[in-house]
Amino acid sequence: MATNIQHLDTAVDELRDLLGDRLSTSESVRTHHATGEETYHSPSPPDAVVFPASTEEVLAIVKICAAHGVPMIPFGAGTSLEGNVIALHGGVTIDLSQMNDVVQVNPEDLDATVQAGVTRKQLNTYLRDTGLFFPVDPGADASLGGMAATRASGTNAVRYGTMRENILGLTVVTADGHIVKTGGRARKSSAGYDLTRLYVGSEGTLGIITEVTLRLYGIPEAVSAAVCAFPSLEDAVNSVILIIQSGIPVARIELLDDVQMDATNRYSGMDYAVANTLFFEFHGTDASVAEQVGQVRDIVADFGGGDFQYAVSAEDRSKLWQARHDVFYSTLALRPGSLGWPTDVCVPISRLAECLLTTKEDIQEAGLIAPIVGHVGDGNFHVQFLVEPGTDEIDRAREVNGRMIARALDMGGTCTGEHGIGIGKLAYLEAEHGAGVDVMRQLKRALDPANLMNPGKVVSIS
Amino acid sequence: MATNIQHLDTAVDELRDLLGDRLSTSESVRTHHATGEETYHSPSPPDAVVFPASTEEVLAIVKICAAHGVPMIPFGAGTSLEGNVIALHGGVTIDLSQMNDVVQVNPEDLDATVQAGVTRKQLNTYLRDTGLFFPVDPGADASLGGMAATRASGTNAVRYGTMRENILGLTVVTADGHIVKTGGRARKSSAGYDLTRLYVGSEGTLGIITEVTLRLYGIPEAVSAAVCAFPSLEDAVNSVILIIQSGIPVARIELLDDVQMDATNRYSGMDYAVANTLFFEFHGTDASVAEQVGQVRDIVADFGGGDFQYAVSAEDRSKLWQARHDVFYSTLALRPGSLGWPTDVCVPISRLAECLLTTKEDIQEAGLIAPIVGHVGDGNFHVQFLVEPGTDEIDRAREVNGRMIARALDMGGTCTGEHGIGIGKLAYLEAEHGAGVDVMRQLKRALDPANLMNPGKVVSIS
């Protein structure tokens, strides 16, 4: 699919009439939107970038683009990892970052409605005085619309769930030019097909998310974080498995392997042991947090885990989790000049140790540097390959990645726990879903028959 | 849509060749499948009922019916309430009750895969020795396939979520004759469109669910139940609102109004006060249950709640919840010869008291008898109209129901929290979803273009 140039020019003219200087065709703006920030994929810039301020403007943009056969790529904070926002076929990138109003907070119902461009940190800052927070935390300060679109999760998902569980409803502009509200504010509903969950994770290929209604939670009375080093990766992971099987409601259980801890110490100025390590966070009442800590300490002791290094003050916890969130950058700093390629899989928890250990061996045998971090309470982990451009390392990394995904699928897992398909995982969707991909194609054809909504991502119908 | 008689006869012949005596055209079997057990809707029998034993047999049945243009209605335990299984246009009812194998239990991953006909009680009996249980509990001993198809929930949903949150994956036979597995056993995935959630709640209109992979939970170390009477409905509901807002992880919070308590005392041989009453259940460690009970007692005391009557032993709790689950029957016994019509709405928790009280006034002003019970922790409640056949009570009940739904929608709620659309709520789907219903129709047309999958339910495309 390539956009007809004459049609494109007409569309851009009409969009400029609509938006004035909130349309840009400048080289720098287009380049910024060619990949997003954190991706190893080849860039492909859009022909123009628009910055709508409302759902109604998005609707008008969609109508113009649809009338002229121009692809539309929604764009939030640009922090996606699998090429989800690359303008593969040119067209118009719809940057929602100016749609950053918190529309409504209902503290009494523990929900909030935000425009798609509001970031998770912005929302949590806004909520500070209400005693509430939004827990889903993918690390990057992603936009909530983008997080919805990729079905993001992150460190808190083991207790609070992912975007899938924490969205009550969406406002979506459809390819055929309608504004659809997919849900109200009731906690549950069995009224018709679950349009909310259909659009969550659809990566902008079925419609453009412009508003999100989210579940909120009370800030826990007590929060405590702790770091614990283990003699081996296996011991760390086996501790996690037992903690999950015991039903202890830990809020965060993050694994950083020895390579990653070395990188984190250097980059974030920490002095932890260079060992396979778990970061924990406990939420609850004082009594409940104390009980959880006791239960977890008993388990990790059985697996040779060291003493807990606690971070109880908000400042210390913030420093700890910032170090965790900075793994992308700390890893890059481990090998300056290298390209960082983060990938992820998710497996049933009982297979996690085996999947991790075999993958780590494979990385070593391939002669690659690739620290491992994981939202291990969910069975989800990330390998970040550090490859030297111009060498064959990228090819070797591709092979290791392919084997890791095949291994995860063999174990009943998934080719991506939270990064999405974008273009990076296209080849693996079929292996995972088989005949289900045909159903996905039927859905795509039904809701976007002209294939203008983020074309080439998730499923190909061209 | 009416089935061509010649085509029907051919299809039945082919199905008999396939299934032998697992196909029935007897009057009694067809009548049993004309409505299911608990519905006020007019019956409409299928032309034949088939009893497949495997997904492959369902596939063969679907291919035969599709080839001859014959409607297919999946049927589990027949406990749905909104006419979800009525054979509106005749055709073949696919009764999945013989597909009742527990396929696989993975205690180490807290999941199980069952055939669609396995009931929730059957699964929990099967799991007894594993220390695990499946929490979703709609009261009736529904099949897990049916519960998936209607997005069921019930008493435990306030803590454990509904079928939406507790299904990892499904096996579905599609209208075009394929077997699709919608998910693996990973706790989360962002690999493509969420087919699992698309089929959950689709009431058999997009495909036939033949297997379900479910999340399991450890049986809590401590369980305690308690009953508490209140001076008014408002006091009871305001207690619930504060409990939910405080984030206390109560496992069950059920409201029974004074009319219902009278019915329950009589039917279940209880001697509770005839007052607006809450039934609680607390799950956790000993310490956590004690803490929750203390927190909840403090809150209810502020609203004039009476002493807690505890049920701690498994036997006492079982008796208590059986009484709760029997409300359908206890209500009917309140007025022998009357027709029971249970309906439900769900609203944001802050609006629950207002919605309940106004509805109760409306019931009284209309001169109707209609006890109220509710999964009030979710903002979900049921009105069970008791109408005398042959009078205008059914019309008055329809009006009260319509006003209640309009009220719930005005409050940001939904026309059904857990019963589904079936045919009973068809008229309200449009009011709730507006342009979203067009998207639902596009999905239905894409996945079932011949409109043979439970036609006439959820959305109409004929």
Largest interface: A-B, 90 and 90 residues
Outline of chain A:
globular
Gyration radius of chain A, rounded: 22 Å
Cα(first) to Cα(last) distance of chain A is 7 Å
Q: Main β-sheet of chain A: number of strands, strand sense, barrel status?
A: 7 strands, antiparallel
Count of domains of chain A = 4
How do the strands line up in the largest sheet of chain A? 15-12-14-13-17-18-16
Subunit arrangement of the protein: homodimer
CATH architecture of the largest domain in chain A: 2-Layer Sandwich
As a percent range, the share of helical residues of chain A equals 25-40%
- Beta content of chain A comes to 15-25%
| β-strand number of chain A | 18
CATH T-level topology of the largest domain in chain A: Uridine Diphospho-n-acetylenolpyruvylglucosamine Reductase, domain 3
Q: Which consecutive residue ranges of chain A, at least 5 long each, have pLDDT under 50?
A: none
> So how many helices of chain A?
17
**How confident overall, as mean pLDDT of chain A?**
95
What is the class of the largest domain in chain A in the CATH system?
Alpha Beta
Structural class by secondary-structure content of chain A: alpha+beta
